[in-house]
Amino acid sequence: MMRALIIIDMQMDMQHRLDRGQDSVNPDAGDKIAALARHFRAQRLPVIHIRHREDHPASDFHPDAAGFPPMPCALAADGEAVFVKTTSSSFTSTGLETHLRENGLSDLTVVGAVAGFCINSTVRHGADLGFRMTVPTDAVLGFSLPHANQSAQVIFDVTMAHLGADFAALTDTAALLDR
Predict the structure, then answer these.
(1) Among 15, 6, 12, 11, residue whose Cα is nearest residue 37
(2) Any residues with CB less than 8 A from the CB of 11 and at least 6 apart, and which?
(3) Comparing C-alpha atoms, which of 46, 123, 135 is closest to residue 89?
């Protein structure tokens, strides 16, 4: 059972939201992600990058938008797999599942953004496909939903409770760095 780190959607749009002061959980998640990436690389374990893309020119995730490039914590090293998705789940619009199976990767540590959206859908989908999912909760970024009057903390807590109930092992970065 080989492990891999999957970094989801840590793109500049996330940093821009933090810089604007949007209500968030784990605004220092990028530091935790960078530490985990260094740890996995030092153990010669794969680090896989997922980026979100939208085709609408006004989208923050359009390839020409300032929000599209990866944050520094999510820069791919030479030879690391990078998948670009157009859906919430990292498995749906990419070749991620094929890549994982072809490389014997079954124990997946998932980090990145955003808790209630792409982290949630990717972890659930991965578990449904039979992958062992682990989520270090302090390496996951969460944001509020102002239009729904829901705080970042409420959304994050409910999302993690659901994931931990049936889809993933929840832990923290420190515990994974000790492995």
Answers:
(1) 6
(2) 51, 52, 61, 67, 68, 69, 70, 71, 74, 113
(3) 123
Confidence (pTM): 0.97
Q: What is the pLDDT of residues 107-149, one digit of tens each?
A: 999 999 999 999 999 999 999 999 999 999 999 999 999 889 9
**What CATH architecture applies to the domain 2-177?**
3-Layer(aba) Sandwich (3.40)
| Domain ranges across the chain | 2-177
How many Cα atoms within 13 Å fall on the side-chain side of residue 51? 22
Separation between Cα atoms, residue 66 and residue 57, nearest integer Å? 11
The partner residues of 170 in beta bridges, in order of sequence, read 135
Length of the chain as a residue count:
179
Task: Encode pLDDT of 69-95 as tens digits.
Answer: 999 999 999 999 999 999 999 999 999
Q: How far apart are CA 55 and CA 39, in angstroms?
A: 34
Q: Is the Cβ–Cβ distance between 114 and 108 less than 8 Å?
A: no
